[in-house]
Amino acid sequence: MIKINPSIRQWILSFLAVDLLIWLLFLWGCVADANSCWESFSFSPLFMYPLTTLPLVVLPAVGTLLGSLGVIPTTIIANSVGILSHVLLGALVGFALRKTKIAWFVSIAVAIVVTFGISFGVAYYNFKSEQARESKPPVVTRQEMTWVDWETYSDPQGRFDFHFAPGMAVTDAQEPYGRLSTESVAVAYKTSEASYHPMNYSQDSWFVVSSQAIDETACYAPVGGVYLTFADQQTIGATTFKIASTTDAGAGNRYEQTVYRTYLSGTCWEIATTLHYASDFTDIDESAMNASQATARTELSDMVSTFRFNL
């Protein structure tokens, strides 16, 4: 027969006595209200053993394994692990106090305080965490900002609409910011606003919508030989656009253009977005310049994402 140190045995039994007391309370709840019996049983691991059963919930591999077993086996395993943890806790306390004689009522009282203290401590922490989560304002996505906060352009002929970024204004000048003929431009927006704007640096963004009655082959034909080819595609609203991107440079000017085209009822439609910046590129804060350009690219992309046909 294995001999167990009296102190270890006492503390193990003290913690198990507290468990037994709580289980008797749960059992009384089943007698008083049979409908809530399973609810009490399934709630017990979270109340009695909140720390020791946490790995069963948060570890993906363990959670997947238990999920395949079903609710009842999972609850039984969780309770079993919790009881085992109290046995181990009692053994550790008993071993630490093996040379100190402790009265039974003291060890049971300590077990009650520790068990309920941990349970209510974890419950209070979860409550405060939930309060903190609920008090935080919802994070607004870029699309929500675009649709809610930006103004709307509606085509006078009712063919399309989109939202435009703050600072964007209608302009009559399009070259070289459109790929279809200048006579086919429906609307063009431009802004020179930028977060980085020193004396030796300029930046502007262009958003041009145009259309032309040409055949479909010509709509998607490479522009300037193989200079601009439509190799990608994207669904914007309910319409699929083919996409081509290009960059150009000259005399200190840089151009980044993305062209979106779709063919509807004999008409080639184009959205052309261009980021243009110019400088002698001396004494430039590159991080600030790059951040400013990234913001402009995002705004142009967001404007494209709001484009909708009303045909």
Please tell me about this protein's structure.
It is built from 9 helices and 10 strands. The model has no long low-confidence stretch (mean pLDDT 80). By secondary structure, the protein is of the alpha+beta class. Helix 1 runs antiparallel to helix 2 (37-48).
Largest sheet: 7 strands, antiparallel
- Unreliable stretches (pLDDT < 50, length at least 5) are none
Mean pLDDT: 80
Structural class: alpha+beta
SS field, number of helical segments: 9
Shape: elongated
Q: Largest sheet, order of strands side by side?
A: 3-4-5-9-8-7-6
Spatial extent as radius of gyration:
35 Å
Question: What's a concise summary of this model?
Answer:
Helices cover 46% and strands 24% of the residues.
Features:
311 residues, alpha+beta, 9 helices, 46% helix, 24% strand, elongated
